[in-house]
Write a structure and sequence with these properties.
The structure holds two protein chains of two kinds.
Chain A: H1 5-17, H2 22-27, H3 35-49, H4 62-66, H5 82-106, H6 116-129, H7 133-156, H8 163-181, H9 185-212, H10 218-239, H11 247-250, H12 252-255, H13 270-278
Helix pairs in contact in A: 1-3, 7-8, 7-9, 8-9, 9-10
Chain B: H1 3-22, H2 28-42, H3 50-69, H4 94-106, H5 110-121, H6 126-133, H7 137-160
Helix pairs in contact in B: 1-2, 1-3, 1-5, 2-3, 3-6, 4-7, 5-7, 6-7
The chains are: A mainly alpha, B mainly alpha.
């Protein structure tokens, strides 16, 4: 039976592996009808055997394999490509810059502006990051003042007075007082005094908005003006602080509550006043 | 040094070479080390021919590596062979000739590459390769012959282009 070409090749390879001369071994099969295939396969096999050893950086110690050595990690940690790190860092920097620019630009925005929500949310984030009572109280006073300025700016630009700004203004003042009560004596008194001044200023500011607003808006604004008056009164009766302002002389309605204001009746209920007495709480229209 | 340590010393260069020609030439040291970690973990369950078992673990490690990469890695990507550069008869340098073989070897299918790597690069006999791959020695001989002819054909075609 004729030996297959595959077996002849295998035999030739074994002979060569034992040290035989490849030329002589191949010559023995010169008469084979598929001699050329045999020759090509044999040459190819020898070329493969002749491939170089791989470069070895370092043979790891066996103790690392078994996990008995803590000095080295066998499998090298996959390092994050430098380019990827650069890209991530650049993205972060870009996002941060964009964020800062947006926040900066939102600083002068008023309700209705595209960036106004950014301004308010940034305030919330800043407040959440604050730790000290004094820092928080001062920040809330600043926010309260800002709401009043925004309301005045809105009216000045011919827009409608946004009463939610007054609610926020009251809320911020209340938070300022809450934080002030947690401070030691002298610091507490200072913040309370400054809050009293702020409340008095707010009363004047709301009155200004009231004067410049349309007749249809006046009933709602009158309510907030009354609330301002009551808050001012409460600050006086609770803490004994009475702030006088030049406008007191020009407008009789500013010295006390606004009950006498253009013949309107005060819309702040007795229940709300009682609630205010417990704490300086924000008021909402009935 | 214990018996396993001696086994490691003996087989590490072989497995390293196997990994070099079976993987993408960049992770072969990691893959060889990973193979021996698996050996240490599973030595208790080892039965039969140790060498065949070791090469099966090595092959599974390569497959797992490819799987984790999502697709087959082409060897040409990382063919950067350092070595003595001497002028051959054909005018091609020795390194260039080797690079031809590397590239062509990669164009064979997985099974053929595995047979050629075990048989010629690792220097195992047809019977040993049969024991590792689970084929008969006759099937290994047939496949090695076909693989070599195919490899030669690929190289000839590549030279022509």
């Amino acid at each position: 039976m004729k030996e297959s070409l595959e077996n002849i090749l295998d035999r030739c390879l074994d002979d060569i592996a034992r040290g035989g001369d490849p030329g002589k071994i191949l010559a023995e099969h010169r008469d084979h009808p598929e001699y050329e295939s045999l020759r090509d396969a044999l040459h190819m096999a020898m070329d493969l055997k002749d491939l170089p050893e791989p470069p070895v950086s370092k043979v790891p110690d066996f103790s690392i394999i078994t996990g008995t050595s803590g000095k080295e990690t066998l499998i090298r940690r996959k390092t994050i490509p430098f380019r990827l790190i650069t890209r991530i860092a650049a993205t972060f920097v870009l996002v941060f810059i964009l964020l800062m620019v947006t926040v900066q630009a939102s600083g002068s925005s008023i309700p209705g502006d595209l960036l106004y929500p950014v301004k308010r949310n940034y305030e919330k984030i800043r407040f959440a990051c604050m730790i000290g009572y004094r820092q928080r109280a001062e920040f809330k006073m600043a926010c309260s003042n800002l709401r009043l300025e925004e309301a005045l700016e809105s009216v000045k630009k011919g827009g409608k007075a946004d009463v939610t700004l007054f609610s926020s203004m009251f809320d911020d003042t209340r938070h300022a007082l809450d934080n002030a009560f947690s401070l030691p004596g002298k610091e507490r008194d200072e913040i309370i005094f400054r809050t009293a001044y702020l409340i008095r200023k707010q009363k004047e500011g709301v009155y200004q908005v009231y004067k410049e607003s349309s007749d249809s808006d006046k009933p709602v604004l009158a309510h907030y003006l009354c609330a301002c008056g009551k808050r001012d009164e409460l600050m006086g009766s609770t803490f004994g602080i009475k702030i006088s302002m030049p406008s007191d002389e020009s407008c009789s309605g500013m010295s006390e509550c606004c009950e006498c204001l253009e013949g309107r009746e005060c819309s702040v209920s007795a229940a709300e006043i009682a609630k205010m007495k417990k704490s300086i709480l924000p008021l909402s229209p009935k | 040094m214990d018996a396993l340590g001696r086994v490691y010393e003996h087989y590490y260069p072989k497995i390293l070479k196997y990994m070099y020609y079976r993987s993408n030439r960049e992770n072969y040291e990691d893959l060889a080390a990973e193979t021996f970690r698996k050996v240490v973990r599973n030595i208790g369950s080892q039965e039969g021919n140790f060498e065949a078992w070791l090469y099966r673990i090595a092959e599974n490690t390569v497959k797992d590596f490819y799987k984790s990469k999502g697709s087959k890695l082409r060897l040409e990507e990382s063919v950067k062979v350092a070595g003595n550069v001497t002028e051959g008869e054909s005018g091609l340098t020795r390194t260039e000739m080797k690079m031809d073989i590397y590239g062509s070897l990669d164009k064979l299918n997985e099974e053929k590459r595995r047979i050629l790597t075990l048989r010629f690069i690792q220097g195992l006999s047809s019977e040993e390769v049969a024991g590792i791959t689970g084929k008969t020695p006759e099937a290994v001989r047939i496949m090695q012959f076909r693989s070599l002819i195919e490899l030669k054909k690929i190289m000839t075609e590549e030279k022509a282009t």
